[in-house]
Design a protein that fits this description.
Blueprint lengths: L4 H8 L3 H15 L4 H10 L6
């Protein structure tokens, strides 16, 4: 949706640091180079449904 990290963290009621840790963990588990790559991999694996 194009939200900033601050907006996402606020909507989830977590800190930006926690959000960053969660994103890094997801990227590692998906073997992704960056967040966009992680989203693409998650979509292709059916982990995200649009």
């Amino acid at each position: 949706m194009g939200y900033s990290r601050a907006q996402v963290a606020n909507s989830l009621a977590i800190s930006e640091h926690t959000l960053r840790v969660y994103i890094e963990s997801a990227r590692f588990k998906l073997g992704a180079l960056n967040t966009t790559h992680a989203v693409a991999r998650a979509l292709s694996r059916g982990l995200i449904v649009v």
